[in-house]
Design a protein that fits this description.
By secondary structure, this protein is an alpha/beta fold. It has twelve helices and 13 strands. It has two domains: 241 residues, Aspartate Aminotransferase, domain 2; 124 residues, Aspartate Aminotransferase, domain 1 (Alpha-Beta Complex).
Length: 394
């Protein structure tokens, strides 16, 4: 009788292991909220806002109902709407551009850096010089006739965009800077400055798969300016202050008290988890080089002096789809972030983009693959992933 040996699964993310480790801390926090029956904008929300702001080196934190709503709230607070446009990346989760379009504004896509997959300062500069002009006290996008109001870089995969180049570029043209830091809590540029403190507003997601994940949707905005922070606090409760008096039209964008309680427990463990991710990434780098694969697959590039928090460990392979299928047969979890760049999404067809408009984003979409890098990944699991990738390329 032949016995079939089933390989143990190596998941892309193992939230069950995290839950088992934190169960005895999280359940009392949830029970305390239930006992209080204070579910909306309670003490846990206020405390988490202070704690995340301090962690991110920002003056103010404003909890939101999701990372998407953090971006939406930031745009609303800056008055972005019909007739406006925002310079941003074509290589990101849909919410980056979707929130711009949702407010009736136009996303203007600038290509990414080939090494980091983050927004390219050179591409932004080229777009401004080629397609924009200064008039009426602002920067205008000639092809669309819209006023450019903001720059929205994305700190993709856990590494900050080149903010030392992007922020002065935005400032020179009077643009606000909205950091899409959904994947990058704790990430730093050279000198130790953290994501969320580098622009006008920082936007974080606490979706369960993030380095700091809630038990559902949750997000947060950070800001240095007290008046802007207060405007966001008002806008997230339908624009009402005091209650039932509305000088602004806002929306229901507030963070849930139960989610805040869970996140406060997890925040105490974030740095340990981040260092485990960084250790796993370094082990991958060394193992792939030792296997002679550094010239076959592209390894993540980290800018010198930066702290990459590795929400994802993303390699490049010219045979990405076949490699992913092979890893699936080995029960190794992977994901493609992102298979279709935003400028080529069907819903943005009216913007008139064609293949070749953002060649670096299109190239990344065709060859990038995320491997397991979560903090509970065991060394033997990591070795099995490397062995499977090596076997495919032999």
């Amino acid at each position: 009788m032949t016995t079939t040996v089933v390989r143990p699964e190596i998941p892309l993310l193992d939230l069950k292991a995290q839950w088992r480790a934190l169960r005895d801390e999280i359940l009392p926090a949830i029970e305390a909220v239930c006992e209080s029956q204070h579910f909306i904008l309670g003490p846990n929300v206020a405390a988490l806002e202070r704690e995340i702001a301090a962690y991110s080196q920002a003056a103010h934190g404003i909890g939101t109902s999701s990372g998407t709503d953090a971006l939406l709230l930031a745009l609303m607070a800056l008055g972005v709407g019909p007739g406006d446009s925002v310079l941003t990346s074509p290589y990101s989760f849909f919410a980056t551009a979707g929130t711009i379009a949702r407010l009736g504004a136009r996303p203007i896509f600038c290509d990414i850096d080939a090494d980091t997959c983050n927004l390219s300062p050179a591409a932004v500069r080229q777009t401004i010089e080629r397609d924009c002009e200064r008039r009426e006290g602002g920067l205008w996008h000639r092809p669309s006739g819209t006023r450019v109001r903001a720059l929205m870089p994305v700190h993709l995969y856990g590494q900050c965009a080149d903010m030392e180049a992007l922020v002065p570029l935005a400032s020179a043209h009077g643009l606000a800077v909205i950091e899409d830091a959904a994947q990058a809590i704790g990430a730093e540029i050279g000198g130790g400055r953290r994501a969320g403190s580098l622009g006008t507003i920082g936007c974080f997601s606490f979706f369960p798969s993030k380095n700091l994940g809630a038990f559902g949707d949750a997000g947060l905005c950070t800001a240095a300016d007290a008046e802007l922070a207060e405007r966001m606090r008002v806008l997230r409760v339908h624009g009402g202050k005091p209650k039932y008096h509305h000088a602004l039209i806002g929306a229901n964008l507030r963070l849930d008290e139960l989610q805040a309680a869970v996140l406060r427990v997890k925040l105490a463990h974030l740095d340990r988890w981040t260092e485990a991710r960084r250790t796993n990434a370094a082990r991958y780098d060394a193992a792939f080089r030792a296997a002679g694969l550094a010239g076959t697959i592209g390894l993540p590039r980290v800018r010198e002096g930066d702290r990459h928090v590795f929400n994802q460990y993303v390699i490049r392979s010219p045979r990405r789809d076949a490699l992913r299928a092979h890893l699936a047969t080995e029960r190794i979890g992977t994901e493609v972030y992102y298979p279709v760049p935003l400028h080529l999404q069907a819903c943005f067809a009216s913007l008139g983009h064609v293949p070749g408009d953002c060649p670096q984003a299109e190239a990344a979409a065709a060859c990038t693959l995320a491997l397991p890098v979560h903090p509970d990944l065991q060394p033997e699991q990591l070795d099995a992933v490397v062995a499977a990738v090596a076997a495919f390329h032999e």
